[in-house]
Amino acid sequence: MKIRFEKEHFLLRAESRFVCCMDGQVHVLETGSENSRIRSLAAVSGKGSERRIDVTIANLSDRPVEILSVESLRIKRWEDFDCGLPWQDIQVMIQGRHKNDIPSVVTLGHRDAAMEDALNGMTESGIRNQGGTGEACLKSDTLTLFRGRDGYLSVEFPEGCRYFCHTAVMLGPAVPAIRIGCEPGMVLEPGCTLQAEPVVLRTGPDWPGLMRAFTGEKARRLGTRAGVLPVPTVFCTWYYYGLTVSYADVRENLDCIVRQGLPYTVFQIDEGWEITLGEWRPNVRFPVSMKALAEEIRAAGMIPGIWTSPFIAHESASIWCLHPDWVLRDEAGKPVLFPMNDTVYQVLDITLKPVRDYVRDLYKTLTDEWGYRYHKLDFTRAPVIYPWARRGNPALAWPEAYRLALRAVREGIGNDSYLLICGGLYDAAVGIADAQRTGSDVLSMWTSAGGGGKAVPFTVKQNLMRTYMGAWWANDADCLMLRRQMEMTRGLNLTLGLLSREEVKVMLVNQYMSGGLFSQTEPLAHIDRERLREIRHLLPLLPLEAEPDLFDGARIPGRIRVKGEGFEELVLINWDDAKPLPVRVSAAEILHMDRPEEMYLLSAFYSGRWAVADGCETVDMGMLLPHSAEIVRVQRYESGKAFIVGSNGHYALGGELAEVRESGDSLSLISRKPLPFATDYCVLRPNGQCQNVRIEWTAGD
Known about the structure:
This protein is an alpha+beta fold. The protein has four domains: 2-95 and 141-222, no CATH class; 233-310 and 351-539, Alpha-Beta Barrel (TIM Barrel); 566-636, Sandwich (Immunoglobulin-like); 638-701, no CATH class. 18% of the residues lie in helices and 32% in strands.
């Protein structure tokens, strides 16, 4: 088939094929061909800048046929992928299936650090894989972007929740160059038809527009929970207390939150409260019932939250004595094992309806009987990372079974409880999850053992590359840790707080740019007040859209446009280990305008510099130190009006205010929501003078 787009110079010459197993023999067949047993068809529809490819396979025989994989598009040579550039110069954005994958933008002919991120990724436990696979193939999931000479091409799976999907890009002139398709792994019974996951190709002059089209179509097809429930501010126990957490720890922090009036809306008890995974009863460190503890959290003015991992269980858990047939097994009949936190667990077979019924009933108990209305689900990827495992119900593919299992959770907790998914499939959770983790677990350190993994640069890169998912749920950039702590306590690496003052800025803007929920773990009785006050830059939570400069050739985006309600900013991060960078920006750069004709006011958060300038004029905002961040806000300047040009409060630099009102000599700052701490503002008055204003915010302001 030949697919030519009218604009952006993309021409694809491709074929479709599928791999099946008939009577114990594997066959590779082209779609469009027909024999006595199989009929297949690849149909291309659409025009202009969009094409859709649908592949249908029918079993005409009286014997079952197993459909192993479908390649809806197979481009065999780079000469057949014409985008106006040689293959070595094509840039590709790849995404991963799970949070621990490292999304990346690579140039196909460059074996650089960005390429190593894309090829090596992380292990399932979130540790950076330094060895490398040596494979000359990039594998992406349901969204892939190609940058050509005159524009961009997106490869999309608009549903992506029935079968595993992939776009595989070969590195080098070897064939085949690109393979786009899905892996049903399904038995097609006599007389039945299989529809492969549809593939959509779009072209456009800018990649943000293509991303919005993708997220919008998936939301229309699968639904979205974005905005259904208020986005919470969460105190989480894990990132200091880990598995040592106790009732005394919970009680101590509850008391601190109440006494200090800290602005958390959820108190979430993380892993460590249970006897073991799968045995969902409190252990000896929790001498009160979990129902009574939920009541204590509500009495402190917060929503009770709880951590669970419903799809794995320790071999000692009673569930295996009661239901040994629920364990997921390999082809030899042995239990599939999932290693995590120095322990090995067995996995529940979520293709079985009784397993999903058990999950629904578990969460109904946790919610309706115990009183927990915020649920963090972890290790949910466990049942779907072993595609070779033997499914108890072979009629369900893994992504479809995963979506049904999450629906069972939602049925158990109801529509008015908050559901955070951590470590599972992304697309299959759209329309079910209220929030999704967008990166690996974090540590409060810039580098970690083994050369990366949970270190700050990698987790920030994951979050930045997935900001577009905010159209489906509240993105969870994982916990913020601001404490200073040079020595471990409790024997836990988690307790360390090794970030410098500049590195803390990067972690703060990482949370800010996510535009999602806010989560934090600190020993509130011991953290110094100065570091804790840094959360004033993030609260109240504001809905934001972040647009990293993905295709600038950097390993990790360092320039990110942020757009909120009524304000726009540029976030800059210096990833260099030694060299400071000059902060030089223009309104045109921030607003993505060619020739803005008005005058603009630019103000930098940390340096405190501000300037009124022509839209095309580049303004010096100071120097950005290594491992540091800066935020520059741009506003259209109008004489006779007052403007916020500086603040030690919210990163929005006045965007958190509903109005700055002048009446004669008086000045009123009117907030959208209460702020958690006192805030100083620098206001540029119409007479050209700056006035400092200190606001003591209270719940009634």
